[in-house]
Design a protein that fits this description.
This is RWD domain-containing protein 3. It comes from Channa argus. It is found in: Cytoplasm; Nucleus. Its main location: cytoplasm. InterPro entries: RWD_dom (IPR006575), RWDD3 (IPR038840), UBQ-conjugating_enzyme/RWD (IPR016135). This protein is α+β, with helices and mostly antiparallel strands. The chain folds into two domains: 114 residues, Ubiquitin Conjugating Enzyme (Roll); 139 residues, 2-Layer Sandwich (Alpha-Beta Plaits). Helices cover 42% and strands 28% of the residues. The strands form four sheets. A five-stranded mixed beta sheet has the order 11-5-8-7-12, with helices on both faces. A four-stranded antiparallel beta sheet has the order 1-2-3-4. Strands 6-13 form a two-stranded parallel sheet. A hairpin with a 5-residue loop joins strand 2 and strand 3. The longest helix is centred in the middle third of the chain and has 21 residues.
């Protein structure tokens, strides 16, 4: 650990000296500094910031994660993006304290927006978060199709995975109403092309499972990522890594049946018009 990092850690531990405010963890290629605080008094929003200081820090900015049980994941993601942009713009010198202050500023703004949209927040909390797995028949216009799905997940504040391989799966997590809107868009917007190259809608999508997030061991995904796989064993491993083994076991019979009856998969030239 460099002298610059040691000095900064010493200063940070002095500034954030309240119970549970500061925590230092060792990582393989540096250290993790975690700072927990409450914005707006005891009843304010809780904020947890984690800074991964690599061995080359501060020559390179730290990796940053933001979490809060009081905010939506999308709000935490937005704050994280602003912190990363801020870190990239700062000179190569100790910056963690400055980034913490920036995060707290962002939280004040989020608090105002949170209070302004309180009814919407309460309604989402009533719905809770759900996990849904969709099965797509085929994809021909891959860039267009995937691009639209990525845009919709961002607009609807959904997270998940898209698995491209023998079976095309889309795993979504978020508010149930937003997931339903995603499915509506999927069936009403021309997302792909048919065998003649004409734009067409997704009419063969199947919902394999929909279940409250709490019933999937409570693990939530942080973003929407597209992944390729070539075998069922790779797909099995991917679901295990996402802590969605239980869901995978429930959809496996449908996937097996899909393969036995003849799936079309990514980029196949299925003569049926979608």
């Amino acid at each position: 650990m460099s002298e610059a990092i040691l000095d900064e850690v010493s200063v940070l531990s002095s500034i954030y000296c309240g119970p549970g405010e500061f925590q230092l963890l060792h990582a393989q290629d540096g250290i993790l500094v975690q700072i927990n605080s409450t914005i707006g008094g005891e009843r304010g929003l809780n904020l947890s910031l984690s800074f991964h200081l690599h061995d080359r820090y501060p020559s390179c900015p730290p990796d940053i994660s933001v979490s809060s049980t009081s905010l939506f994941r999308s709000q935490c993601h937005n704050i994280r993006q602003k912190l990363l942009e801020k870190a990239a713009s700062l000179p190569p010198e100790p910056m963690v304290h400055q980034l913490v202050e920036c995060a707290q500023q962002q939280f004040v703004e989020v608090t105002k927006a949170y209070r302004g949209g309180r009814e919407e927040v309460e309604e989402r909390n009533k719905q809770g978060e759900w996990t849904v797995v969709l099965l797509l028949d085929h994809i021909r216009a891959k860039n267009r199709y995937v691009g639209l799905l990525e845009r919709w997940t961002q607009q609807l504040q959904l997270t998940g995975r898209m698995f491209l391989g023998p079976c095309i799966l889309v795993v979504l997590q978020g508010a149930r109403a937003d997931i339903k809107e995603f499915c509506r868009l999927l069936k009403t917007v021309k997302v792909d092309v048919d065998s003649s190259g004409k734009k067409c809608k997704e009419r063969m999508m199947k919902v394999l499972i929909e279940t409250p997030l709490s019933s999937t061991c409570g693990h939530s995904l942080q973003d929407f990522v597209v992944k390729h796989y070539v075998s069922l064993s790779e797909l099995t491993t991917a679901f295990q890594e996402l802590h969605l083994t239980e869901i995978y076991q429930q959809i496996l019979p449908s996937l097996s049946n899909w393969q036995q009856t003849g799936y079309h998969g990514e980029g196949s030239l299925n003569p049926k018009d979608s």
